[in-house]
Design a protein that fits this description.
Elements: E1 3-5, E2 8-18, E3 22-30, E4 36-44, E5 46-53, E6 59-67, E7 72-76, E8 79-83, H1 88-100, E9 103-114, E10 123-133, E11 146-151, H2 152-160, H3 167-181, H4 187-200
Parallel strand pairs: 5-10
Antiparallel strand pairs: 1-2, 2-3, 3-4, 5-8, 6-7, 6-11, 9-10
């Protein structure tokens, strides 16, 4: 039996690969012009959850780890996969505590995104956390993590100059800046973000 998805007609579907984290589906399709083709989709079994934690001094904790697919070291905001049966906010608290040891007194969702919607269904939910308490990190046994703590302003610089290239971290930083400027965040984190951005920006000098 055929199935319609937008302009595509699915004529056959099979599982090409499956593991505890994702399933790769192969589809034989007919496109809107009537041409036969194939479409592969990676179906993720977890939701990506990220946290932007803000200390009262305007600093944020970053997590460093080697990323297997790119064979590259990456500095990121705390993030990880949440089972779809787990409440996203609970997953955010858990990931933050596991990766950094930080506990949040206040946490709010401030964005959602589809991370690579041409070939995957991976969805991300991200949270802003403040009123933080430090503690001991407790990463998963297979995680080898480093930590550093920098100002939000420096984090914004590293996002903009490409030093940080993790998509979810970039989305969180840019969304936080835009929402802070729009007055769409709670007062305390909004004020911290705006203060940090003011510290790295200066009015353009005529002739520059």
């Amino acid at each position: 039996m055929t199935e319609k998805i937008g302009p595509w007609t699915i004529n056959a579907r099979r599982i090409g690969y499956d593991n505890p984290w994702l399933t790769v589906e192969h589809h034989d399709v007919t496109d809107a012009d009537g041409r036969s083709g194939i479409y592969g989709v990676a179906r993720f079994k977890n939701v990506a959850v990220g946290v932007l934690p803000l200390f009262d001094d305007g600093t944020v904790p970053l997590v460093g780890q080697h990323r297997f697919p790119f064979d590259a070291y990456s500095w990121e905001l705390p993030e990880g996969g949440a089972p779809k049966t787990e409440e996203p906010v609970a997953a955010a608290h858990r990931e933050l505590a596991e990766e950094t040891g930080v506990r949040a007194g206040q946490i709010v969702e401030f964005g959602r995104s589809h991370l690579s919607n041409s070939v995957t269904d991976e969805a991300a939910i991200y949270f802003l956390a403040w009123d933080l308490t430090e503690g001991e990190a407790d990463p998963d046994p297979d995680e080898v993590l480093s930590q550093r703590r920098i100002s939000f302003g420096q984090l914004a610089r590293e996002v903009m100059d490409g030093s940080i290239d993790d998509a979810l971290t970039i989305l969180m930083v840019q969304t936080a800046i835009i929402k802070a400027q729009m007055g769409a965040l709670p007062d305390r984190p909004r004020d911290l973000i705006l203060s940090e951005m003011a510290s790295i920006l200066r009015p353009a000098v005529r002739g520059e």
